[in-house]
Each structure stands twice: as structure tokens, then as C-alpha cells.
Amino acid sequence: MTKETEKQQKREQIAAAARDLFTEFGYRAVSVAQIAEQANVAKGTVYLYFKDKEELFLYLVQEFIDEMGRFVHEVEKQNLSIDEQFHTVIYNLLKYRREQKFLYRVVREAHEMHFALARRVTNILDSDITSYIEKLLEQAVRNGKVRPCNPKVLSFVIVHIYSALAFEWEEKHEPLDEGQVAEAVRNFLQHGLILPDGEKQPS
Question: Is residue 40 located within the same domain as residue 64?
Fold first, then answer.
């Protein structure tokens, strides 16, 4: 085993310990000493690999961002329509974020405790998804596949509609399955809500 490989394994050992503790107790309740104990290393060893607890936390978040980036890249290689790309990327990334216990804890801390670092992380995650949709919209406008629009504003709206239907809806209603969420957003995007003057909804 090379020295570089050994260092990487040690870094991952510390990161895995921190992920488990952050997931169970939250960021603010965990100390570097506890992370060191969980990883079975000296406290000073943690600081050899990470400047402080915040850097370690952001390292874990970056791992998830990289994973989401790989997913988006795989979607781009598929021959999907624009609404299928919207749905595949947004719904699955939001679902992934909720199902990953570490990320779910981050989001919960951000919303329930107004924790600044957690809020910053959720903003980064939302921004990544929104930026992808914005680029997709810009390309679709250029290719004449969608009407001229403000891609920045519309991408924000689309992502938050998905988020609301996929997760917030079930707080007060029966949960919607993936197909129902996709259909609701697809109808909104393809047909809109308000009919043009003189046009009536078929009976």
C-alpha cells in the first residue's frame, strides 16, 4: 500500500465516522474529539486531514454533490424529451437528498433550527439542481422547444414546485407517487393554467 493510498483511507475513515455522528446527533452536537474516538484515531490526526469540523462537514457534502453530478451526466447521455429530463433530474435528486440520512439531517437542521451552515448547504444543493434546469431551459429556448422565457426565474419555480409536491404535500395530504408528481408538473409546463382569450376547455 502506498503512502498516498494509506492517507486517503485514513481520510475516508475519519469522514465515515463524522458522517455517522452528524447523521445521528446533528452537526452542532458533535465535537472533533467524538469524531476522533469514533474513527479510532487521535484528535490531532483529524486536524492533519481537515482544518476544522466545518471543513470536514463540507467535505461530506461535496461527496454527495459529486454523486449528484455523476447522475446528471448519465441522464444527459439518454435520449429524453425536455420534460422527461426535468422530471428525471429534479425528482430523483430531491428524492436522493431525502433518502440519504446525512443530507436529510442537514435539511432538517436548516429548516427547524435555522442553522446557518446547514442553510448554506441546502442553498448549495438547491442551486446545483436549479442551475442545471436553467441551462436546459436556455438550450430549449435556443432550439425552439419552449417559448421564450426567463430561464433563471422559471428554473427556480420548477424546482420548488417539484419540492413542494414531492415532500411538503404529504404533510397535509396523501403522498403523491412519482407518476402523479411528474404528471402534475408536466401539465403545468406543457399546457399552463389560463386559457387564451376565446378558447374554452373541452367539456
Answer: no
